[in-house]
Specification:
The chain has 103 residues and is an all-alpha fold. The chain has 5 helices and no strands.
């Protein structure tokens, strides 16, 4: 199982190239292109950071870590699971890009 922080670091590279000011076509914001639906999932899972935290790389990483650690199922491919959670409409190309960027 791949470390969640390594997956989050790879997601940042794929989602925004590390740009904390990135705004996506679908409304994603910040380094992880967090959309409102993902922020609401973070809150549902007990997260306490404010919505403007999506613009702060450190807070965005904390949000992603909470969501992924609670949603990746034990015994499953953590990279594949993370990609399906983070960008459920993306194809295999997305998972391939994330895997290529995991250190």
């Amino acid at each position: 199982m791949t470390n969640i922080m390594a997956i989050v670091a790879a997601l940042i590279l794929v989602e925004s190239g590390g740009d904390p000011d990135a705004v996506g076509k679908c409304g994603g914001q910040g380094v992880l292109q967090i959309r409102n639906v993902m922020y609401q999932e973070y809150k549902r899972l007990g997260g306490a950071l404010p919505p403007e935290g999506v613009w702060c790389p450190m807070m965005a990483k904390q949000m992603a870590h909470r969501v992924l650690e609670r949603r990746i199922r034990a015994g499953h491919d953590s990279v594949s699971e993370a990609c399906k959670i983070w960008n459920p409409t993306a194809g295999k190309w997305y998972e391939k890009r994330v895997r290529e960027r995991i250190k």
